[in-house]
## 1
Amino acid sequence: MLNDKKILFSGMQATGSLTLGNYLGALKNWLALNDDYECFYCVVDLHSITIRQDPSELRKRARDLLTLYIAAGLDPVKNCIYFQSHVPGHAELSWILNCFTYMGELNRMTQFKDKAQKHADNINAGLFTYPVLMASDILLYQADIVPVGVDQKQHLEITRTIAQRFNAIYGDVFTVPEGYFGKNSAKIMSLQDPSKKMSKSDENPNASIYLLDDEATIRRKFKRAVTDSVAKIAYDDAQPGVKNLLDIYCASTGKDIKDALGEFEGQGYGVLKDAVSDAVCALIIPLQERFNELKKDKEYIDSVIKENAQRAYYASEKTLRKVKKKVGFPEKIK
Ligand code: TRP
């Protein structure tokens, strides 16, 4: 490696449009950790095909997501920003690690159970071994830290288990990574049903703010956000809609709940909704402007894609060579 910094790996799927929840819950953490680590940010397109995808749609979304990473402020020179499918090592290591993962372990994964239920007509083997591919992403780069949402905790645990199992047999091959779940990273809920997470795949478009929604849409969605009839702005589990708006407000402005409550004391929900809309627009409209500029510059994005795929490839091959030797594959003749 070029320096002594520890290594960070994370990734997102290009399925669905990114929401404010993805930004405040994940991307913001990436930005916060960015300077202290050598970072790999991957668009995990291999994972996407565990669910049936429209090819041209997937291609477009994957490129948009990579562009969004940059628009959000991740520098593609300091960081490695790339497509998983451009680096063959992910799939190769995944095969090898499949042979070090037990059916019983994968059977316990709650995400597998959820997805199998949701896509009962397509419970493919890739959906089952999804966590092994994710473990391979992480272990391939010897990552020390993996910032992800809490819904990925179980996948992080199995990654650690696989790494430890492999190391116990072959010696210290893999760094055993730590998950990073963000101390105060907000869990953003649906605007229409605040008991559910704000999700890319929500069927009701009013439930989510998409990062590429225009200003009028953002304001309209917040106006329609579900609140309650208590008519008091408090940070209380009994008022999940208002609580969610306060969380969004604080996560977007960097203020803490106490200050926000002071600001809104005695005010009505309309004032809160306007303030949340202002805060969110201030955050994401500039991001959209950068995104649209970047998108126009095809040559630049192409060069980022090309150069970073190469960097990722070199880093991945270093681990892969070691792994192949350890498990006993014959050496290549040059
Ligand atoms: N499974 C992750 C999610 O759905 C995405 C992902 C794939 C990932 N590989 C990864 C995240 C490696 C972190 C590290 O959110």
## 2
Amino acid sequence: MKLSELYGKGRVVFSLEVFPPNKRCPVETVYEAVEKLAELKPDYFSVTYGAGGGSTAGTSTCEIASYIKSKCGTDAMAHLTCINNTAADIDTALELFKAHGIDNILALRGDINPDIQPKKDFPHASDLTSYILSKGDFDVAGACYPETHVDADSPVDDILNLKKKTDSGASHLITQLFFDNGCFYDFREKATLAGINVPISAGIMPVTNKKQIERMVTVCGASLPPKFVKILQRYESNPEALRDAGIAYAIDQIVDLISNDVDGIHLYTMNNPYVAYKIHDAISKLL
Ligand code: FAD
């Protein structure tokens, strides 16, 4: 099914993000995690894509997405990045997705790696979006940034560029993680004023350890509200308390977002069913 059709039906769309196997999370662990997560009955899963690119583009993403669809009976959206891929690489990935019945794609540019010369076929996610739509009956989603993408010249430019993405056919959007709901509400208002009228799911990352927070702040520049900083300071040397406080903070964020008519909640699960279950238990009746 086209996942954009889930939105606008008077309820909050609940999605879970997982990543394919890597050195720290072997393939059996990923399958085990998705099977457990699927019991929460999310509306769909999204499966991330390693930014390296090349002719095997999307293979492990496709494997997990197709396992989720065929074995867990849940819809799945495959992420696909373009900055290190040629049009031929993208064609290969799309053929693979088609062959496995994956017709929902999150079209992304990917981060620019200073050590890799970017390919020239798709400079922006909007270029990839229109290309995918020209290649078959796909439903294409896009990423957006409540606190502005790090490469953007200004917040206004970033919103105008996002409008190019929806004009290219992105049918719904998922935000970068944020810890300050006020940033999301400001962004949503500006997006609407710019004529961006597609549903926007809020990306929520339950932060469960200090290293993870430091990484997130460095990689995506998420601002930390004073309430959040106090939690970190109080529990930084007590991992279990920090995990529980991180879960409670995410629940608080989600309750507020739902009360403010968010279209969807997209949980960055980090392949951790324990955390997702705690959050789901607290919010399932609100969705
Ligand atoms: P774009 O939309 O192309 O934007 C990138 C920059 O270019 C922005 O500053 C924007 O303002 C500017 N821009 C956009 N269009 C134009 C235009 N037409 N003209 C001029 N400037 C323009 N990365 C991965 O490697 N794998 C993943 O699986 C993955 N999943 C993600 C999921 C979500 C929900 C999010 C929010 C991010 C994800 N990322 C992933 C990270 C993402 O690849 C990076 O944030 C990347 O730097 C930007 O990707 P984008 O698709 O938003 O790029």
## 3
Amino acid sequence: MENGQTIRTDWTREEADALYRQPLNDLLFQAHTVHRQYFDPNQVQRSKLLSIKTGGCAEDCAYCSQSARNGAKLSASKLIEVERVLAEARKAKEAGATRYCMGAAWRSPKDRDMVALEAMVEGVKELGMETCMTLGMLEDDQVLRLKTAGLDYYNHNIDTSERYYSEIITTRTFADRIDTLERVRNAGIKVCAGGIVGMGEQQMDRVDMLLTLATLSSHPESVPVNMLIPMADTPLAKVEPLDPIEFVRTIALARILMPKTHVRLSAGRTGMSDEMQAMCFFAGANSIFVGDTLLTADNPEEDQDAALFKRLGITAMAVGCDGSR
Ligand code: SAM
Ligand code: DTB
Ligand code: SF4
């Protein structure tokens, strides 16, 4: 029991579905009430992303500009130098980011890359930032090496519901994803796992995706909710845009099911109005990516986010503060 409520990992599909479908005002009220019980509602955490190895990926994720399989034009880079990563991390810290997330376009890391990855984690930690990596699937020994280097979070998304998954990715299974999440959790690294909405899925897929995360043995500490950024030359380039209210409902359900989790309003903010983002913060989102690029796609400029925070009376979480009550 916490704050008079139990953190539940036994949510049923019927409960989650009913929560998602209730009248929007009821859903928002409930989500915001839960949010206030666990977090300062006016504080938002800021993470910065860096692509440490871009393009040429062997996986066939239908949304991704970095897959070598789906005809996207992005050329493959090598793993970048440790010093360059640390120089970028320093800049991100000066700009106020508290978590540094390093992403690689890999199915999984090669053992020959591990020494450089460990040095990146150690160097970013020395700067006083939280570290996060997203490198694809991991084996037990790789998880252990990253943990020993000091990695705080590992991001690995389930992307969508188990039902819709095979429409989006065929080169690794939903069960593979869960397997990597379990390895990360068992090693004592904090879990960052979420997905993408707006990929042509149905409402029940959005509910089921969150239900899978909320019924893991422990909730992920971070849940990024990405709005699909339709990338040219990918199979999802021309998918019908999602009703923004459906996106807000997804955030609200994530907040209710996983009360203590940082819910991140992730990719796709350049396509969102200030009003929509404000609604997402009210619904329980309390983390964003900052800086004008994500991995390969655009993100709002720092000035724009600073102006939005000012308009909304939101302040940024400081290093070492998780915004919880
Ligand atoms: N290669 C690693 C992997 O897939 O696990 C790490 C990087 S990958 C780009 C991280 C996540 O970014 C994906 O799982 C997906 O949820 C999200 N993502 C990628 N492309 C996106 C897009 N066009 N729109 C929204 N989210 C996207
Ligand atoms: C996550 O859920 N979203 C981030 C992070 N985890 C690695 C990635 C968003 C990528 C958006 C598309 C791009 O920049 O290429
Ligand atoms: Fe590769 Fe990750 Fe893109 Fe999938 S999402 S194609 S694994 S970089």
